[in-house]
Amino acid sequence: MNVSNDNPASTSGPVSIATKDACVDFPIFDAKSRSLKKTVMGLVGGNIDSGSKVPVIEALRDVTVNLEHGARVGLVGHNGAGKSTLLRLLSGIYEPTRGIAEIRGRVAPVFDLGVGMDPEISGLENIMIRGLFLGMTRKQMQERVDDIADFTELGDFLHMPLRTYSTGMRVRLALGVVTSIDPEILLLDEGIGAVDAAFLEKSKQRLVQLVERSGLLVFASHSDEFLRELCDTAIWMEHGRIRQQGELDEVLRAYKGLPA
């Protein structure tokens, strides 16, 4: 295993992500039932290595990617194919069990819109905390608070504890913060829902602007429309392996079984 994660507050060189024959395994030390193994597979994807004394979930197998500054990559594949696990490998959250992963640049991992938010404090306080969690400075977030507040359309609710918010209100707040940052490497796992159509359209515009500000994008999504709006190349994941990578429309056609 070889891991390099140059992830300071800012980088002097161009951002990039490279993996070579990277594998991610999850040993299951108390897998007494098939249902437990199935549950874990549903969360991370991949295959079960039944030859090992301790059952091992082979979440990613022999993954090789080279992403440079300017890359706009869509991740496609069925649920459990390994897309979310790959995003976590590319972010440095998961280290490869075998193989190499090198990440150069400040990573903004946006996998769960609710991560880093505290239900007991106000929306305004959560804006600050979530921004810090995504790699911004306190000064940068203070400069963005008014813009985020206007975008969310939450008004006086911003002064109330997050626990008083509906799901849709929480998504609005989280999207406001996420789309205000300046990432070097942006890793997005599609999780936009529970908001009305008009607000979703408004969010898409800000997401496009967010992607334009980022040095490198990897975006996991089931929406062809959204992928075409944000990406120009794609990686098709299947059973924890890369089935195909290349130009976006070409990969989408192959994934859907359409003629070239």
Automatic annotation (TrEMBL):
UniProt keyword Nuclease present: no
Superkingdom in the source lineage: Bacteria
InterPro entries reported in the protein's UniProt record: AAA+_ATPase, ABC_transporter-like_ATP-bd, ABC_transpr_TagH-like, Bact_Polysacc_Export_ATP-bd, P-loop_NTPase
Domain ABC transporter: 31-260
Pfam families: ABC_tran (PF00005)
CDD domains: ABC_KpsT_Wzt
Alphabetical keyword list: ATP-binding, Nucleotide-binding, Transport
GO CC annotations, alphabetized: membrane
GO molecular function, one term: ATP hydrolysis activity
Family: Belongs to the ABC transporter superfamily.
Protein name, entry field: ABC-2 type transport system ATP-binding protein
Taxonomic lineage from the root: Bacteria, Bacillati, Actinomycetota, Actinomycetes, Geodermatophilales
